[in-house]
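Appendix B. Chain record.
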Amino acid sequence: MLAGELRLGGVDCVVLEREAVPVDQSRALGFTARTIEVFDQRGLLPRFGGFGTIDMGHFGGVGLDYREVEGGSYGAKAVPQSLTVAVLEKWAEELGARIRRGWEVTEFTEEDKGVVVEARSAEGAQVRVRGAFVVGCDGGRSLVRKRAGVEFPGSDAGVEMSFAEVEGVRVRPRPNGERVAGGMVLCFQQGPERFRVTYYDRAAVPQREVVRPSFEEVAEAWLRLTGEDISAGRPLWVGRFTDASRQAVTYRRGRVLLAGDAAHVHLPIGGQGMSAGVQDAVNLGWKLAAEVQGWAPGGLLDSYHEERHPVGARVLTNTLAQRTLYLSDDAMDPMREVFEELTAYEEVRTHLIGMVTGLDIRYEVGPGDHPLLGRRLPARQLTGPDGTPVEAFTLLHRARGVLLDFTGSTATGGADWADRVDTVAVRCTDTAARELFAGVGAVLVRPDGYVAWVGREGEPLEGLTEALARWFGVPAAA
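Structure tokens predicted for this chain:
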């Protein structure tokens, strides 16, 4: 994702990928509602071939209807990670990213004006790559993070869960999980006779090193916990994960940056892990491209850490809270009862849904009190001056800033930044758009889809120049 974003920003980039061939395992089975929007902002959704969304989800096993929040869902349904990787890799290569598979990074050296990365192939060949920056997207055991000396504090594993993707059997689906004597079981149906079964065996003690279980071990535990025999099925993939939760103290140290699992690891609940990584990349991409291109205002690249570190910390917090509700024994029942009582209140439900989906993220973007400030631009159908329909997300396909002009008077306001910001005259002709933009004269949207400035009717230019300078630097002519 980051490679694609950098290419949209006009920056040359190389991806050094240890795996020689793309992943063919399902792994993450979808992504959150906000990540669906992020892919839509780049025009990527059609490449997934169509998928459903999960409306009924949960928070720690307590059921919630995610449609209660506009644009809300528990996420994309049954989209294997292998497909997501394939879609993003093809997109990045089409944009000109150089993806070099089969190269494992072994070391890097930071210099005054760049970094030198060393890597080796499985055959023992060596290569050195020089760049302006290096971004570690290399997972929870990130070599880049370790070599940069970035601390990774948090908690060790206290819970271990095992799973198998199996075909040729029928299993009762349990999409929100089910507490059973001795633990918890979860089951997603992926086809007529294809299931992902996951379980927590309370008697199991997490090992220091996570070792992949055998299918026989999974089948035996599933039979013991549920009474269902899956041993005759054909395992496609088996694995194990824990609730180890850690976060890098900083996402940037000089010319070294971190994204995804290299920056944060946690119990995988609700597709939040991969989704948080994708959103890290979209937040970072345009800022890093601006830095390399030379027009980034002071502090723009540092705002990556300032904005995304709190988001990552909140993911760790909510997954640990869900683990406690989900996996604790009967001693937690009073807490579960109180929690379920609280979800009778709409404000509590929408708070939890916004937290898990990422739809409630709000960045500090500058002065003003409009409800849209710092929040994502929702999908809206607008109309151009000639009556042609204009999809708000379509305007973000090129990962440039967008100035939505509802009055026709702000066109000159963004003209000096035309190399970085597209000014688009639009009107609201449907009810949803009119309600969202009521009293608004113009809206400045960052390349990552978050609103950076709102001009009210009657004073549509007030503060625009300052907002453009804060996020898009000094005009090219100056």
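Further analysis of this model is presented in Appendix C.
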